[in-house]
Amino acid sequence: MRADRLLSMMLFLSARNHMTAQELATRLEVSERTIYRDINALSVAGVPIYTQPGTHGGVFLDENYRISLTGLSPAQIHALFMSRAAGPLSDLGLANAIEETLLKLFAALPSRQRNDVEQLRQRFYVDPTNWFQNNERPPFFEDLQQAVWEDRLIYIIYQTVEHGEIERILEAYALVAKGNVWYLIGKEPGGTMRTYRLDRLSQVQLQETYFERDGDFDLIAYWEDARRSFEQHMLASFPPYPATLRVHIDVLWVFPAHMEGRYEHMSEPDSTGWVTLRVTYNSPGEAHMHVLGLGTAVEIIEPQELYTSVLETAQAIVARETASDQ
User: Taking all residues of the chain, what is their mean pLDDT, rounded to a whole number?
Assistant: First the structure.
């Protein structure tokens, strides 16, 4: 355990140039006293590690010191070779860099660990994309990437859900990929940070003006907070809408294909091929459209209001088609 902690400390310091003892203690979940004992142990072992007091002080590694990766555990190696998100990395132009890095690491591994990696590759694969998802590169991506990298202002025209098209001048702070969907994090000068979905942008123009980035902005903390707020808003606006249905086995495939994790079997198929399901929809409207689309292969047990709304829609369709034939 201590060897893992010492390696983690060295990797943190190598990645961030320097950290305070308190920061290291928090990241490694130990006391500051333990951190200072570990610093002494590394120094005795010949690692060029230093401490400096004062406001800008902390714990440092010599800038010319390089860490060997031969101490990676099997689990750490497996994680590296399984943690590729091909779509977003390709959009950023980093897919080849990741492949080349992994190839170099693979070549440096002992033969036994190379065999383990080959077995892993043939047994597990993580695909970060959703079914039927558009994998084309988001529009204006190069301009947005340049704006984010250079701290540039941008002019956008954005299609909102509630208010139609809006125009904005934004400070382009960051790009975030969730699955294969990209989002822009930005704010109007002096305004509040907001999230914009890239596929709703109809126009992007780089401005010649640069902005001064807020040094306290933490992208990961912002995204986690924004994600939680969005989920809470959606739950408040569209509370779960449960329904109990009898479904014929001819259309049962629809539920694992499109409602994964949102339904459960309440019975086994009977002698005529019907099964009872408990389904959780996002809203009454979603339930109405979904059940109506299954036609005569579904029966509504509850709620009564869903039964009534589907029946009224079906009767209206029949009445309209009957009238058009006359």
Answer: 86
Query: Structure tokens of 118?
Result: 């080959």
Domains of the chain, residue spans: 2-61, 74-121, 141-236, 241-319
Q: For residue 303, say if its preceding peptide bond is cis, omega within 30 degrees of 0.
A: yes
Burial class (CB in 10 A: 0-12, 13-18, 19+), 58: buried
Distances (CA, A) of 311 to 254, 279, 306, 321, 326: 21, 19, 8, 15, 23
Name the least confident of 9-13, 147-151, 171-175, 271-275: 9-13
Class at the top of the CATH hierarchy for domain 241-319: alpha beta
| Angle value at C-alpha 239, between 234 and 243, nearest 5 degrees | 135
Looking at CATH, the fold of the domain delimited by 141-236 is given as SH3 type barrels. (2.30.30)
Sign of CA dihedral 102, 108, 114, 117: negative
pTM (two decimals): 0.62
Backbone dihedral region of 301: left (phi > 0), alpha (psi from -120 to 50 degrees) or beta?
Answer: alpha
pLDDT at 135: 66
Q: Could you count the other beta carbons within 10 Å of the beta carbon of residue 192?
A: 6
Contact 204/143 with Cβ under 8 angstroms?
Answer: yes
Mean pLDDT of 238-257: 93
| Helix (H) and strand (E) counts in the chain | 12, 12
Take residue 4 and report the two structure tokens written for it. Answer: 């893992």
Quick one: CATH architecture of 2-61? Orthogonal Bundle (1.10)
Burial label for 248, CB within 10 Å (0-12, 13-18, 19+), is middle
